[in-house]
């Protein structure tokens, strides 16, 4: 039975109305664009974590591969689209090569293996390509047309988000998706039923890495700059937190998690500044707005609290309260 796409229709309406609400404010367009970029990455990661039941603490590494491919290859006269494709292919090949040995592991051993992979990619990006200060990235041009400005990027990223949700819904509805859900429930039972457990694990890991790499490339072209922090462990923690908070095995939970947590760093900066201003006025303390490392602590705390109080995530929990099926992404 086909999954209803009512949630996708609602999202399309929101995305079409949103520019009229935003107006010409480029700051708000920038916020929404980053939400869309993160949402597509989190969709791919949720296929791996929520549906297949496999953890990845190094997913930002694939994001970084795509970004650095788009930063470096155009300097060798590669067209931007070719550089994006090369980064995505490189990420997919690396994922395909590393997946068979690491998916022999389970639980925290698997988490540590993916963490190590992410750290290696992050360190290579930092030391070999531009250093800790990052590298400039040329603007994205297709057929002589340059995509420039937050509003043009909004429509491109909105279209990619809608397409990604549609593709993920159809994937989950397919026999492949049903095999993933069975694998999450019990690998032994899936193997007995004839599912090639190893092949499905590798395939979904490669697919999620492919998602992350493409969005890494687009993110770099959008910002016209790439910092190694975007491939760091803290970025991987953010992505995992978005999956868990929004909802494991929930397509729209991925979008909600990305929307809620994308701007958390800026919110922390604002809150910390406000608190320090209060203490400065009352006690004469000097205002210091450095929040380096605080975001990782807060993301970790949110992750722990979500697992304790909302183990299924926000969207599936709300859907369950309303008496609807929400764990598989069928509820917007």
Task: Explain the overall architecture.
The chain has 14 helices and four strands. The protein has helices at residues 6-22, 26-51, 60-72, 80-102, 107-128, 150-173, 175-185, 187-192, 197-223, 233-246, 251-261, 264-283, 294-309, 314-321, and strands at 135-136, 141-142, 145-146, 225-226. The model has no long low-confidence stretch (mean pLDDT 87).
CATH fold-level topology: ABC transporter involved in vitamin B12 uptake, BtuC
In helices, the fraction of residues equals over 70%
Structural class, by secondary structure, is mainly alpha
Taking pLDDT < 50 over at least 5 consecutive residues as the criterion, the unreliable ranges are: none
Number of strands: 4
The shape is globular
Overall pLDDT confidence: 87
Q: What would you say the CATH architecture is? A: Orthogonal Bundle
What strand order characterises the main sheet?
Answer: 1-4
Instruction: Summarize the main sheet.
Output: 2 strands, antiparallel
What proportion strand? under 5%
What characteristics describe this protein?
single chain; 332 residues
Helices and strands in order:
Blueprint: H1 6-22, H2 26-51, H3 60-72, H4 80-102, H5 107-128, E1 135-136, E2 141-142, E3 145-146, H6 150-173, H7 175-185, H8 187-192, H9 197-223, E4 225-226, H10 233-246, H11 251-261, H12 264-283, H13 294-309, H14 314-321
Antiparallel strand pairs: 1-4, 2-3
């Amino acid at each position: 039975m086909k999954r209803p796409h009512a949630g996708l229709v609602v999202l399309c309406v929101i995305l079409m109305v949103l520019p009229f609400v935003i107006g010409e404010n480029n700051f708000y367009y920038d916020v929404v664009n980053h939400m869309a970029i993160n949402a597509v990455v989190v969709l791919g990661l949720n296929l791996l974590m929520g549906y297949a039941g496999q953890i990845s603490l190094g997913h930002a590494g694939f994001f970084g591969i795509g970004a650095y491919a788009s930063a470096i290859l155009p300097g060798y006269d590669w067209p931007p689209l070719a550089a994006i494709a090369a980064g995505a292919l490189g990420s997919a090949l690396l994922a395909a090569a590393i997946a068979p040995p690491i998916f022999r592991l389970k639980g925290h051993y698997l988490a540590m293996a993916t963490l190590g992979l992410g750290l290696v990619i992050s360190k290579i990006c930092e030391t070999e390509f531009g250093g800790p200060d990052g590298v400039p990235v040329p603007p994205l041009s297709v057929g002589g047309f340059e995509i420039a400005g937050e509003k043009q990027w909004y429509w491109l990223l909105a279209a990619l988000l809608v397409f990604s949700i549609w593709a993920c819904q159809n994937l989950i509805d397919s026999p492949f998706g049903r095999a993933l859900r069975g694998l999450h429930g019990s690998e032994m039972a899936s193997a007995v039923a004839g599912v090639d457990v190893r092949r499905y694990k590798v395939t979904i890991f490669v697919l999620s890495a492919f998602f992350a790499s493409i969005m890494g490339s687009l993110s770099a072209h959008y910002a016209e700059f790439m910092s190694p922090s975007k491939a760091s462990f803290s970025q991987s923690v953010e992505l995992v937190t978005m999956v868990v908070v929004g909802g494991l095995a929930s397509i729209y939970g991925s979008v909600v998690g990305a929307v809620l947590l994308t701007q958390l760093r800026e919110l922390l900066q604002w809150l910390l500044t406000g608190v320090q201003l209060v203490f400065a006025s009352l006690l004469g303390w000097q205002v210091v707005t450095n929040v380096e490392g605080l975001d990782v602590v807060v993301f970790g705390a949110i992750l722990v609290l979500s697992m304790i109080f909302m183990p299924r995530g926000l969207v599936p929990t709300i859907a369950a309260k309303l008496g609807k099926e929400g764990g598989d992404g069928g509820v917007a």
